[in-house]
């Protein structure tokens, strides 16, 4: 089942809450166990120890009241004895009720049995005193002392048992606390790892398709309209992917229609433009009659504009062929240094008119790369012409060619106005011009750099530009060995 983005987020948060709930629940349970053990010590053991002290005091008081009554025959001591007797039995009953171990119950039962015998002997003696029968008192005195000693010994043993039990429970609580801390720490670390994993997995399942979509958007911005985006989950992204691929298909069709239009238009314009150029040439030669000086100037302007239009048509045809993969290349090993010098010589009139200095930096160790001579000359002409076009009078152009690890690197550096960072990639597209305010640039068609890029890429190379506003531009062409 393919979960939606909302379902993924909800499920991810639910898992996190469950993990945290389990850890917190275990922690609370451990705290409850420790609290329970502590309460048991306070509510049971401490209370029995208090009762034990009262029982000791009480049994000693009973012996005292008994002896005072035997000597004085005062009924007040007899009543106090009976009151102490009742308190002893109540204390013993309370202790038996809350006793929670076998040892405690055994000692308390022994105390209860001894006290019952002791109590019976005391009552017997007191009744004898009341009836003035003294012969039995001496007989029972030894037995009563023995029973009281048994009671005190059992109370002492009870106290010892309770202290051992308390000590044992404290050790158990201490060990439980230590184990709980370790286990809680382990659980928290495990929970943290699980939470991070859940968060990462949930976030990744959402951001990964978004990243793919973003990369595809960048491709489209570069003029690559392949409808090959594949995102199957989440459902929202799958629907967006389908729409995105459909958009790419439509853009591809539009791009093809545009290329076909330019190609057809170029073919249709080429013949009449050539005829116009030839006709103007005939008129300049006087075939149609004598040409005045003013007419000659007009014909020169027409010739220049015809050549510019023919150049534009040729550029359109070249770019259409390149994009359609129909451009043919004649590769051979050429001397790149000689090609650069030839390109410089061809633009010499432009260089002289603007009084620009051109510096050529090459080495004798340059290899002869496998290139199409005419197409590479076209690349060099375009780059050098652009450098001349945008350099001010008395400017400087530096052309370099040297070897590096990746291949042969050619650079053309000018002293023009520079290109904004955001336009460094866009200028290699068709009909793209840098947003610089120069009258020279308006004479261009915006196809030169697009042709340069296609030719260089066809050679397996790379082309890019580095520039800062006001610092000029440097175009680089990297050709493989």
Brief write-up:
This protein is an alpha+beta fold. It has helices at residues 5-72, 75-98, 102-130, 135-221, 235-284, 293-324, 336-346, 348-353, 373-390, 448-458, and strands spanning 331-333, 357-361, 370-372, 396-403, 408-413, 462-467, 473-479.
Strand-helix topology:
Elements: H1 5-72, H2 75-98, H3 102-130, H4 135-221, H5 235-284, H6 293-324, E1 331-333, H7 336-346, H8 348-353, E2 357-361, E3 370-372, H9 373-390, E4 396-403, E5 408-413, H10 448-458, E6 462-467, E7 473-479
Parallel strand pairs: 2-4
Antiparallel strand pairs: 1-3, 4-5, 5-7, 6-7
Helix pairs in contact: 1-2, 1-4, 2-3, 3-4, 5-6, 6-10, 7-9, 9-10
List keywords for this structure.
481 residues, alpha+beta, de novo design (two linked rop proteins), Heat Shock Protein 90, 3 domains, 5-stranded mixed β-sheet, rod-shaped
Descriptive account of the structure:
The protein is α+β, with helices and mostly antiparallel strands and 481 residues long. The chain has three domains: 5-201, Up-down Bundle (de novo design (two linked rop proteins)), CATH 1.20.1440; 255-324; 331-479, 2-Layer Sandwich (Heat Shock Protein 90), CATH 3.30.565.10. 70% of the residues lie in helices and 8% in strands. The protein is built from ten helices and seven strands. The strands form two sheets. A five-stranded mixed β-sheet has the order 2-4-5-7-6. The chain has a two-stranded antiparallel ribbon with strand order 1-3. Strand 4 and strand 5 (408-413) form a beta hairpin. Helix 1 (5-72) runs antiparallel to helix 2, helix 1 (5-72) runs antiparallel to helix 4 (135-221) and helix 7 (336-346) crosses helix 9. It is rod-shaped, with a radius of gyration of 54 Å.
